[in-house]
Design brief:
192 residues; alpha+beta; Ribosomal Protein L22, Chain A; three-stranded antiparallel sheet; 6 helices; 35% helix; 23% strand
C-alpha cells in the first residue's frame, strides 16, 4: 500500500510578536558525602539570587558544603555558555537538596556490642534561568594591583627559594653560618 500526501495551500497569517523563549539549564551533583540538612543551609542562601551574587556568597561562606556547591554553580555557568545564554541575566531559579543513599557502617563498642554509623549522602540540583531584564550587580570584582613593595618582596622570596635549591643537602644557609659573638657560642654547644 502506498500512502500519498497532498499539499493544500494554506493562507499565510501574520503571527503575533513571538515572546523570547526563557532558557534554563539544570546541573546535578549526586552522592555528595555531606548530610542534606547541612547542604540545605548553604543552598537556601543562594536560591532566587542573581548568579554573581550567589557566587560571591558561596566564596565568602564558611561551610564545608559551600565548595562543592560553588563548583556545581560554576559548572552550570559553563553549561549556560554552551547553550549561548546571557550570563548577565541568569538567576538561580531552583535549588534543591535531596537525600541520597545511606552508607551503613558499624562501630565496635564495649562488651562485644556494635553500634550503627549512618554516612548520609545528598543529591543537589541547581537550575539557572534567564530573566527578562538584565540583573544589576551588587558586587564589583576588582583586580588586585601589586605595589612595588610587594613585587620586591616577592622577587626576594623567589631569589631565596632559588638559592635554597642550589645549596647542597648538608650545607647550612648563609645566615646561620655567619652568626658572630654570643649567639655563635650558644648555638655551637651540644648541651645548653
Amino acid at each position: 500500500m502506498e500512502s500519498t500526501t497532498t499539499k493544500t495551500p494554506v493562507a499565510e497569517t501574520k503571527a503575533p510578536a513571538e515572546k523570547k523563549e526563557i532558557k534554563s539549564t539544570t546541573v546535578r551533583l549526586r552522592h555528595l558525602r555531606i548530610a542534606p540538612r547541612k547542604v540545605r543551609l548553604v543552598i537556601d542562601l543562594i536560591r532566587n539570587m542573581p548568579l554573581n551574587e550567589a557566587e560571591a556568597q558561596l566564596t565568602i561562606i564558611n561551610k564545608r558544603s559551600s565548595q562543592p556547591v560553588l563548583k556545581l554553580l560554576r559548572s552550570g555557568i559553563a553549561s549556560a555558555k554552551e547553550k549561548e545564554m546571557d550570563i548577565s541575566s541568569l538567576i538561580v531559579s531552583e535549588a534543591r537538596v535531596d537525600k541520597g543513599p545511606i552508607l551503613k557502617r558499624w562501630m565496635p563498642r564495649a562488651m562485644g556490642r556494635a553500634t550503627p554509623i549512618h554516612k548520609i549522602t545528598s543529591h543537589i540540583s541547581i537550575t539557572l534561568q534567564e530573566t527578562q531584564k538584565s540583573v544589576s550587580s551588587r558586587f564589583v570584582t576588582q583586580t588586585v594591583v601589586k605595589t612595588k613593595k610587594e613585587e620586591k618582596k616577592e622577587q626576594k622570596h623567589d631569589q631565596e627559594h632559588e638559592e635554597e635549591k642550589k645549596r647542597a643537602p648538608g650545607e647550612l644557609p648563609k645566615q646561620a653560618s655567619e652568626k658572630k659573638g654570643l649567639a655563635r657560642k650558644l648555638f655551637r654547644r651540644k648541651n645548653v
